[in-house]
Design a protein that fits this description.
Elements: H1 2-8, H2 13-25, E1 29-31, H3 34-38, E2 46-48
Parallel strand pairs: 1-2
């Protein structure tokens, strides 16, 4: 998780954990704020809530 946050020059521990779990499980992320996650992981599969 720290590696993802370092590359994006952001510090958002909650978003980092969400990304880590979604990638590990192969699931899309359900969110109302996709920008928060896309700043860290632009390639993340996101479904809008």
């Amino acid at each position: 998780m720290i590696h993802l946050l370092d590359e994006s020059r952001a510090w958002d521990g909650i978003a980092g954990q969400v990304i880590l779990v979604a990638r590990h499980r192969g699931w899309p992320v359900l969110t109302t704020d996709p920008g928060r996650l896309q700043r860290i992981a632009p390639d993340l599969d996101i479904d809008l809530l």
